[in-house]
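step=predict obj=Shikimate kinase n=201
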Amino acid sequence: MSKQRDDKVMSKTTGLDPAEDLDHRSIVLVGLMGAGKSSVGRRLATELGLPFKDADTEIEKASNLSVAEFFERHGEEAFRKGERQVIARLLTGPRQVLATGGGAYMDEDTRTLIAEKGISVWLRAELDVLYKRCMKRNNRPLLKKGNPRKILKDLMDERYPIYGLADLTADSGEGPHEIVVGKIVSALASLPKHNRTASDQ
């Protein structure tokens, strides 16, 4: 397992080559709802010249249901199964920046796959930031089960130790998403090259 590294803001002109320097691996963003995975992911993909995929969007396309509708009709267990399958499919495809749902990294099989096929980046955010962002659009199924702030706090307590297993951590605060992108690019540039898999050789 890769050791977590401190990240620093760095100029976008890092000279990072995602094909060579990242050993053909996808960048997989993990973290709680409201951490900015989709917004940061789009900007990061543009910066690295890679396509961007959002796991939740891909699930919606595959099921022809919104995430909220899927939860309501089929329940969380069925959603997690479908999520696992979608992420597995995406990670066996071309390199990309992939934003995952908040619960995806909690699944051990999914974590193992991400470790094999990608470089995981935890977007870490404080409770106030998450709550403020989530309340802008109150469409999160898990937050409809009670007090949203308490639910977020409970999810932080449960999930942050697992998110901490990610290869890299970038703090996502109140500032522009470009700052977070700069942190991630800097941290990626400082990574030693991963050992190539047999398929890369």
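step=describe
Helices lie at 37-48, 55-63, 67-91, 108-117, 127-136, 148-163, 177-190.
step=end
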